[in-house]
Amino acid sequence: MPDTPERTQARRFVRLALPALGVLAAEPLYLLVDTAVVGHLGAIPLAGLSVGAIVLAQISTNLTFLSYGTTARAARLHGAGRTRDAVAEGVQATWLALAVGTVLLVAGQIFAEPIARLLSGDAVVARAAVDWLRVALLGVPFILVTMAGNGWMRGVQDGVRPLRFVLAGNGISAILCPILVHVVHMGLVGSAIANVIAQVISASLFLRALAVERVPLRPQWTLMRAQLGVGRDLVVRSLAFQISALSATAVAAHTSTHAVGAHQIVLQLWIFIALVLDAIAIAAQSLVGEALGAHDERRAHALARQVAWYGLVFGTALGVVFGALASVIPGLFTTDGGVLAEIPNAWWFFVVLQPIGGVVFALDGVLLGAGDSKFMRNVTIAGVIGGYLPLIWASLAFGWGLVGIWTGLALSIVIRLVGMVARTRSGRWAVVGAVRA
To answer: What keywords tag this UniProt record (predicted)?
Structure first.
């Protein structure tokens, strides 16, 4: 059967999506292992991990422009035949990662205790969270360097090396985690040490890869300032997500220790699956950016339709799997009866949202690849303010617990779906050129 443009594009898509899937799955999969290991220590350590992990996640998630913004800029340059300039974007993103990571490390050590107290409904949980955080924060600069490395490599369509680098770090740490926690009897702190080891190994490999590229390695403020301009809208978007996540964890913690433990388990699964589905988005981001950089608007539109369909099919399959295994999976993470009793209050929202999330995350990649960051910022804020936050705090006021929290998440995803489908169909996102005007 002769090749068609659609089949050729599908093969390129798969070559980018599969390694991206491995990279995206590695970190949340490690966190799932971490959650399972700590979950067998009991409800208090699990609640402490929940609070600590959500705080650490704010640092990396609010700086996603180091990966997604860098990919968008590098992909356009690569599509325009300027691969050397695309790699230079990675150099400057790495300098930004080191500078911002160092500042956040210091600030995190200062504010770890008051933040943990604010988020925890129990003094014992707060102490456990602080113990974990003080160690885990040491990995922040390395987390951000890894994000920058993934960004420029995806932009030049190198998906294999990032997979190797991330698996090297997380694989070793996944082996160390249960040893440090249960064999060496370091408890929750052992979990944090294993986390830092993963980040150091992966970041070192990315730094070495960048050092051998034939591009200037000195800081260039002009490029960094341009990256910060792209990052502004993505940071605001990420802050909206993280304010919601922090609020949800705080309300769950004030509901009960069992509720926040259950929320931690289902939330980590949600994050894990969202990042798995982001493999579609990352492939779309790289290919859409390349097409627009090469002034091929028609190919960019075809990719948008293609990836939305992939997201729907993949999300539906995941929903079926998690629905069928509803009585099995939670028991892998904890044996605490109170936590297991709370999990169904969030679980079925998690299952039903999979097909919707599949489309939303796929279209994220299309619009990110196009550099349509202002619209993405606005539709995310609309979902958070119009759905998630009101229901989270109503859950605290009226005692709705996890049902109210996850209803808010569902409403915010639906709002994003409606907005992003309308935007994609309008075609206003498809601006061609090596740099988006």
So the answer is: Cell membrane, Membrane, Transmembrane, Transmembrane helix, Transport
Widest CA span of the chain, in angstroms?
A: 67
Beta strands, E only, 256-364: none
Mean pLDDT for 180-185 is 86
Under the phi-then-psi rule, with left for phi > 0, alpha for psi from -120 to 50, and beta for the rest, what region is 371?
Answer: left
Q: How far apart, in whole angstroms, are the C-alpha atoms of residue 189 and residue 51? A: 14
What own/partner pairs with CB < 8 Å and gap ≥ 24 does 329-337 have? 329/269, 330/265, 332/36, 333/32, 333/35, 333/36, 333/39, 333/265, 334/36, 334/39, 334/40, 334/43, 334/46, 334/261, 334/265, 335/39, 335/40, 336/39, 336/42, 336/43, 336/46, 336/258, 336/261
Cβ within 8 Å of residue 319, ≥6 positions away: 351, 352, 353, 354, 355
Q: How far apart are CA 146 and CA 67, in angstroms?
A: 8
CA distances from 64 to 158, 195, 238, 293, 356 (A): 19, 19, 7, 22, 22
Domain segments of the chain as ranges = 11-426
If one counts every other C-beta atom within 10 angstroms of the C-beta of residue 5, the result is 10
The model's pTM is 0.78
Listed range (12-26, 205-219, 284-298) with the worst mean pLDDT:
12-26
Alpha-carbon distance of 74 to 48, in angstroms, equals 39
Are 365 and 284 in contact, with CB atoms under 8 Å apart? yes
Which has the closest alpha carbon to 172: 196, 149, 151?
196
Other C-beta atoms within 10 Å of 331: how many?
10
Query: Looking at the chain, how many residues does it have?
Result: 437
Which token pair is 289?
Answer: 């950016």
Report the share of the chain in percent with pLDDT over 70: 98
What's the pLDDT at 230?
74
Number of Cβ within a 10 Å radius of residue 249: 25
Cβ(75)–Cβ(293) under 8 Å? yes
What integer pLDDT is reported at residue 371 of this predicted model? 84
- Count of other CB atoms within 10 angstroms of residue 46: 28
The string of pLDDT tens digits covering residues 391-426 is: 988 988 888 888 999 999 899 999 999 999 999 999
Distance CA 119, CA 91 (A): 36
Residue 20 contacts by C-beta under 8 Å, 6 or more apart in sequence? 154, 159, 162, 163, 278, 279, 282, 283
Look at the block and give the residue holding tokens 């113990």.
131
